[in-house]
Design goal:
Length: about 280
């Protein structure tokens, strides 16, 4: 059986035409995973999941990321909001979501995917954009690919959050540095499938072994490349939507929204299934 899909733009994202009962039934899980891998983003309209339903659906697709260490809350559901009363510890980090990033770029095995449901929308802003970093890799000329494949990059939460807080307090710096230890990764992820993607985002501080001016210039060029309109899908949220992004092959960012907008999303994250770097 093949599910019906609508592709809003050519290179990324598919709307999958399944209803809530079909999603919860689990029968289409393997196919949804396959479409997610190929398209980077899949979404469903009018599903109106409760937290329990969203968790049950997530469990059909993979392993739900749980617990205090992973910061996803006890049951594996996390509220994404800028209202500090709702999510006191992490509201600050959500400022970082206004800039292109992948989640868990500080981990050896970054999350596979996140499942996000719209609860309260913002009157302005709050659209989420996704860039397909597999497609961006594929379209690079061969000689550039060969040069890039040798490079490693350092990811740091401080670099990302300095965009939101250009003059951080000592307390902020201390908290960012101890919560997220900077991580060196290959610039190019060779997945188990054999496909390759670029591992980028505004968390990238530098290219290892390259002088700062060259490193900054190359990173700017690569970010401009990956986020070209032809690799990007912008999701205009509607009430009842649920969307999944493949965190291993896309970057994402949110159109800024204000803390008093009320914007509230529920997120369930799936554990990664393969390390970003191959054992040497
Ligand atoms: C995230 C994130 C996007 C959004 O939850 O990791 O970047 O639209 N959120 O809130
Ligand atoms: Mn994110």
């Amino acid at each position: 059986m093949t599910v019906r899909t609508i592709d809003p733009v050519p290179r990324i994202a598919s709307q999958i035409l399944l209803d809530k009962a079909e999603l919860l039934g689990g029968r289409h899980a393997a196919e949804i995973r396959q479409i997610l891998d190929q398209r980077g983003v899949v979404f469903f309209r009018d599903v109106n999941f409760t937290d329990d339903e969203q968790l049950a659906f997530a469990a059909t697709l993979g392993t739900i990321r749980l617990g205090a260490i992973r910061k996803e809350g006890d049951r594996g559901i996390m509220t994404i909001t800028r209202n500090p009363d709702d999510n006191p510890r992490y509201a600050e980090y959500f400022h970082g979501t206004f800039h292109w990033h992948m989640d868990g770029s500080y981990e050896d095995i970054p999350p596979l995917a996140s499942i996000l449901s719209a609860r309260v929308l913002s009157a302005t802003g709050g659209q989420t954009e996704f860039a397909n970093s597999y497609a961006a890799w594929e379209d690079l000329p061969g000689d550039e690919k060969r040069a890039l494949e040798r490079l490693q990059v350092v990811h740091s939460m401080e670099t990302l959050l300095r965009l939101a807080f250009p003059e951080p307090s000592d307390e902020q710096l201390e908290s960012w540095r101890t919560s997220f230890i900077p991580k060196t990764h290959p610039l190019v992820w060779t997945h188990r499938s054999g496909r390759k993607s670029l591992v980028l985002g505004h968390s990238v501080t530098s290219i290892v072994g390259m002088a700062k001016p060259e490193s900054d210039a190359l990173l700017r060029k690569l970010m401009n490349w990956v986020t070209q309109p032809r690799f990007v899908y912008r999701h205009d949220w509607q009430p009842g939507d649920t969307l999944i992004w493949d965190n291993t092959g896309t970057l994402h960012r949110v159109e800024p929204y204000t803390a008093d907008s009320g914007r509230t999303m529920q997120r369930v994250t799936l554990d990664g299934e393969e390390p970003l770097a191959r054992a040497a």
